[in-house]
Amino acid sequence: MSLTVFAMTGASLVGLGIYGLLALPQLLRRIISFNLIGSGLFLFLGAAGARGEAVDAVPQALIITGIVVALAASALAVGLVVALARRSGLVVLPDEANPR
Amino acid sequence: MTALVIVLALPLAGALAVIALPVRAAVPVALSATALTALSALVLAASVWQGGPVTLMVGGWQPPLGIALQADGLAAALIVMSALVVGAVAMAAWFEMAAARAGPRAAFGFWPLMLLLWGALNAVYVSRDLFNLYVGLELLSLAAVALVAISGTAQALVAALRYMIFALAGSLLYLAGVVLVYAGHGTLDIGLLSARSPAPGDALALGLMTAGLLAKTALFPFHVWLPPAHASAPAPASALLSALVPKASFLILIRLWFEAMPELASTAALLMLAGLGAIAVIWGGVLALVQSRLKLIVAYSTVAQLGYMFLVFPLAGGDGSAQPWAAGAWTGAMFQALSHGLAKAAMFLVAGICIAAVGSDRLGDLRGLARALPMTGFAFALAAITLMGLPPSGGFTAKYLLMTSAFAAGQWPWALVLAGGGLLAAAYLYRPLAALFTRDARLPVHPVARAWQGVPLALAALAVLLGLLSAAPFDLLQIGRPEPAVEGL
User: Fold this and answer.
1) Within a domain: A95
2) Cα separations (Å) of B353 from A4, B71, B217, B256, B443?
3) For residue B129, how many C-alpha atoms fall within 13 Å in the half-sphere facing its CB?
4) For a tag on chain A, would you pick the N or C end, based on fewer CB atoms within 10 A?
């Protein structure tokens, strides 16, 4: 029962994140969407490790590593977004067809 | 085994040292770390050559709990090619990324990022664990994005962010596949996965991972981020990005399809992968034909040249006997990866020299440059021979192997793609060559050091030598070649 809850929550987080990626052009919101998708996947992975009698420790190790990777990626992305906003005032990527 | 550890650890340690030590020590430390790592790469390849694949169980733990690292022939060949490219890029960057020329920020930031990128590449080449591959791929992408943004202009930042969105989406798709594999099998080791009992989610997992890796390899239609990203970076960084970075995600695709889950390969999936590759060859070539800046021509040419490698999927097979021309498409695709890496790095370094000499890479401004810089003009021409696939270059060996197996397999349309792509390459490379070798120089030329000019020439010569001396790399690639690569998917 609880496993289904974890899986459903993970799936909803991934769905929310994908919606954000597709619907929101602001770069900061896209970064948050990426983090939502990542968290949903990690939740799913954690639930996958809790199936048998004993708890499988490998997914926990993978999730911790994955969180560190996601943190590093988010930090670099936010840094780039801030640098772009300082330099050009843009908070969205300019359109290829009609650059501002 | 020591060489394997050094190849992985020294670039990372060097990157940390460059940041931690005083600024004046940065370049000597980075160059010595590069030299030592390149030396260990050669030692590692020699031991693979003599004793077969080198395996290391990290910390003495066996899979599925531990992580296995293994340098087989393919990994060793890519490690050596990367060492040659990074070594050449480091020498060119010694001139080009000097603080007076590139600004203090880029001059300092380039070295640790180059070493980080190299460490990540080597980690991806030898990892046998899907999650370890994910971490290596992320580290590689972050270093690559930072290299794109290093000049700090608004245009470079936009290109870097667009690249990052593709790279992050690709990583998450790959990660989703990894999670499904773990949920289905409880292991992520490639060796154990090849012996697994099939689970219902396998096809979905492989599809997700493949889609993510295609986005990172910039296969059509995911190529739109590549040309602006590669053209905005400084030339030595572009050389790394174009010659090496897409090879890492391509190698993971090869590991997945040929080693971890070969039984999932259906004809439709293989045809789709090769079809996208064929479109990339043609479309990348056409777009390269209409560009007016040298760096953009070279970047679109990367889109086209990467497409050839995907022809391996329906064509793989054929035994690797003593004669190179009797072998299969698998070896041809790997030759393409190696020769494209050397030739493309040479071309971007030539573009860097052109920018240093006349301050621009527009074709009109490059007119007659080969009279002032004959070595550079010759280097570009040699690299162009490899990209066009003319004999006796490495690119010729690659395309010849692919073409013979296309005919042997009765799939002649791929041979048309190979021939058409070669003609397109000749057409889009003719324009910069014609501009370089005209008689009327237009702009005054700043002097460029001879040693700097020699670097791309050496790389381009190596790409040609790869074809002339193809027997040795050919045999190296056969060491530890997976079974489905011999018999076909």
Assistant:
1) no
2) 60, 35, 27, 39, 14
3) 22
4) N
* CATH label of the domain that carries residue A52: 1.10.287.3510
The upper half-sphere exposure of residue B377, i.e. CA atoms within 13 Å in the direction of its Cβ, equals: 18
Closest partner residue to B164 (CB to CB) among A37, A80, A87 is A80
Tell me the nearest-neighbour CA distance from B208 into chain A, angstroms: 13
| Residue at B483 is within a domain | yes
CA of A2 to nearest chain B CA: how many angstroms apart?
16
Is A94 a domain residue?
no
The predicted-structure confidence for B9-40, as pLDDT tens digits, reads as follows: 999 999 999 999 998 899 999 999 999 999 99
> Is the Cβ pair A72, B162 closer than 8 Å?
no
- Burial readout B324-338 (b: 16 or more C-beta within 10 A, e: otherwise): beebbbbbbbbbbbb
CB within 8 Å: A41 and B153:
no
Q: Which of residues 329-358 of B touch A (CB under 8 A)?
A: none
Distance set, CA B140 to CA A37, B60, B136, B367, B372 (Å): 21, 26, 6, 37, 38
Distance from CA of B116 to the nearest CA of A (A): 14
Task: State the total domains in chain A.
Answer: 1
Q: Given an 8 Å threshold on Cβ–Cβ distance, is A62 in contact with B149?
A: no
Contacts (Cβ under 8 Å, ≥6 apart) of B106: B97, B150, B151, B152, B234
- Subunit contact B179:A45, Cβ cutoff 8 A: yes
What is the per-residue pLDDT across B245-258, written as a single tens digit (0 to 9) for each? Answer: 999 999 999 999 99
Nearest-CA distance A11 → chain B (Å): 11
Determine, yes or no, domain membership for A10.
Answer: yes
Range of the domain at A23: 2-88
- Statement: residue A49 has pLDDT above 80: no
Helix (H, G, I), strand (E, B) or coil at B71: strand
Domain count, chain B: 1
Residues in chain A: 100
Of B17-26, B33-42, B227-236, B433-442, the least confident: B433-442
Asked whether residue B97 is assigned to any structural domain, the reply reads no
Interface test with B, best of A62, A64, A65, A93 (most B CBs within 10 A): A62
What token pair was written down for A90? 């843009």
Query: Distance (Å, rounded) from C-alpha B232 to C-alpha B161?
Result: 12
Amino acid in position B80:
V
**Parent domain of B329:** 276-489
Q: What are phi and psi of B57, to 5 degrees?
A: -95, 115
User: Mind listing the pLDDT tens digit for each residue in A63-83?
Assistant: 999 999 999 999 999 999 999
B71 domain residue, yes or no = no
B22 domain residue, yes or no:
no
Residue B78, judged by CB atoms within 10 A of its CB (0-12, 13-18, 19+), counts as: buried
